[in-house]
Amino acid sequence: MNVIFLGVQGSGKGTQAKLLSRKYGWPHINVGEKFREHIKKETKLGKTAAEYIHKGELVPDKYVFKMIEPTLLEANQGFILDGFPRTEKQAEYLLDEFDIDVSFYLNLPEKVAITRIQARRHCNRCHKDYNLLFNPPKEYGICDACGGKLVQRKDDKKDAIEKRIQEFHKTTKKVIPLLKKACRFVDIDADRTLEEIHQDIIAEIEK
Ligand code: AMP
User: Fold this and answer.
1) 2-110+157-206, which class in CATH?
2) Cα dihedral sign, 86-126-123-54
3) Domain-by-domain residue ranges, the chain?
4) Which of 3, 92, 120, 185 lies most in the core, judged by the most C-beta atoms within 10 Å?
5) What is the pTM of this model?
6) Is 38 in the pocket of ligand 1 (CB under 6 A)?
């Protein structure tokens, strides 16, 4: 199946996409993570993308297409998209080129989203993710898995978060009517536990 996860930052798209990928074996395509890999490797695309990402702005469509197109074309057994489409142009491209079976919209109030994002940390060595609210490390600031230092993403700091949330409301929400027209669209209450949300998603997939 080809599945899309849509939702404001902090709504749990990445976590739910990972769980679904583990259950069904469809590749999880996380666009933000792909950009972060480019930034880490200091590629030309990474350097360009970093200028937008660190300010909390969307990366222009032409760079997003350049990065994601080969991955989508390779994933011929289905895919789970996390963080794409985020603009109308991206949605039009996706819906023209691929059959999408279902879109899950993880619906979360803005205040809850901000609290969750500010509590996010990741290990700067092995990249394991934590959340100080739901999934804290055993020792403050230290990765359980490798002993690395836990840090906050630059774009998870207050100014960048506010901008990213504004972008979501101004730009990304416009893809909702396009998705509703083209595929099954499921609105999920994301202000619940990870397991409850996962079970709802599986029930929809199995329908
Ligand atoms: P994320 O980890 O999904 O929150 O993505 C981090 C950042 O990567 C976003 O704030 C954007 O700057 C950039 N990004 C990720 N996906 C896209 C996309 N589909 N279009 C434009 N920019 C994106």
Assistant:
1) alpha beta
2) negative
3) 2-110+157-206
4) 3
5) 0.90
6) no
